[in-house]
Amino acid sequence: MYQSLGPRGDSPISIIGAGIAGAWNALLLAQAGHPVTVHERSDTAMRQSTSHWAGGMLAPWCEAETSEPVISRLGIRSLDLWRRHFPETPMNGSLVVAHARDRSDFERFARRTTGHRRLDARALGELEPSLEGRFRDGLFYADEGHVEPRRVLPQLHARIAAAGSTIQFNSEAKADDLEGTVIDCRGRAARDTQPSLRGVKGEMIVVETDEVELSRPVRLIHPRWPLYVIPRGDGRFMLGATSIEAQDSGVSVRSALELLGAAYAVHPAFAEARIVEFGSGLRPAFPDNLPRIAIDKEKIAVNGLYRHGFLLAPALAELVLGYVERGVIDNEVMQCA
């Protein structure tokens, strides 16, 4: 799986994009002592970044239901990196539930995934008291976690600066204009050099209620896609799950109705919740929905993270660091021109 091309040089490193992929690359390289400059086209709010609209779920075992094994491999490694660099990251696990009408889908999810234990109704209620009596059982993935993207991304940026590197916001940098090693983490904006990229829209709704308390993400098995309800603290919850082949941003009426209806199916109190925000992001994906690190001499492109940006970014950044310092190649993920 791995091979070495020999050590790389110690030239200055420029990273284009300060979203989750670019930020993790900058953090690991800066902490390893490399001079790094990050160029980000948007301002510090990062509203143009897909990361701004992400769920932040760190769920490699759950994602195995529909993903290739490489996603689980990289995701499990990323969990270790999140724990090491952000020990305060909530690692309370993930919970998967279903109503009786979706029992066959629930059992299929259980068969296709590992790393879980089955909870009966009593144990489920003890784990999440707000769900007591609502489901006959559930699947508990105890080793999974989640982050709040809009909190953790500024923390990443602060640590990059503390390590002696620089982030230049409102900077529309182009790879050909930069010297030294350039790492392109632009996501869907990189279609000018990676034309096979496409956008996959992920829609989200943030609601607020003091009638529901959850300690971990809850996935509700759904005939078309599983809804996830992610606690954000202070009585706020993110609702999400859609993966729509579309190039527009914004939330459709159909998606909003289905997300809100599914949330009500998790707990009726969500019917009285206040809607705080609607939004969507376009996730960058290649035709096979797998991540790719493309290397052309001193040009490195990290892209195609699809639905797994926060899950995969640390492990992909570690692979880039290994290549920059030692020329190590992971043949399953990295491609050399």
Offer a few descriptive terms.
337 residues, alpha/beta, FAD/NAD(P)-binding domain, D-Amino Acid Oxidase, Chain A, domain 2, 2 domains, seven-stranded mixed β-sheet
**Outline:** globular
Largest sheet: 9 strands, mixed
The CATH topology of the largest domain is given as: FAD/NAD(P)-binding domain
**Total beta strands:** 20
Termini separation (Å)?
Answer: 18 Å
Question: Could you outline the blueprint of secondary structure elements for this entry?
Answer:
Blueprint: E1 2-4, E2 13-16, H1 20-31, E3 36-40, E4 57-58, H2 60-63, H3 69-85, E5 94-97, H4 103-112, E6 117-120, H5 121-127, E7 137-141, E8 145-146, H6 149-162, E9 166-169, E10 181-184, E11 198-208, E12 218-220, E13 227-233, E14 236-240, E15 244-245, H7 253-266, E16 274-285, E17 292-296, E18 299-303, H8 309-326, E19 328-330, E20 334-336
Helix pairs in contact: 1-6, 1-8, 3-8
Short description:
By secondary structure, this protein is of the alpha/beta class. The chain has helices at about 20-30, 60-65, 70-85, 105-110, 120-125, 150-160, 255-265, 310-325; strands spanning about 1-5, 15, 35-40, 55-60, 95, 115-120, 135-140, 145, 165-170, 180-185, 200-210, 220, 225-235, 235-240, 245, 275-285, 290-295, 300-305, 330, 335. Helix 1 (about 20-30) runs parallel beside helix 8 and helix 3 crosses helix 8.
Molecular structure report:
By secondary structure, this protein is α/β, with parallel strands linked by helices. The protein has two domains: 2-57 and 148-195 and 287-336, FAD/NAD(P)-binding domain (3-Layer(bba) Sandwich); 94-142 and 199-285, 2-Layer Sandwich (D-Amino Acid Oxidase, Chain A, domain 2), CATH 3.30.9. It is built from eight helices and 20 strands. Strands 5, 6, 7, 11, 12, 13, 14, 15 and 16 form a nine-stranded mixed sheet that branches. Helix 1 packs parallel to helix 6, helix 1 packs parallel to helix 8 and helix 3 packs across helix 8.
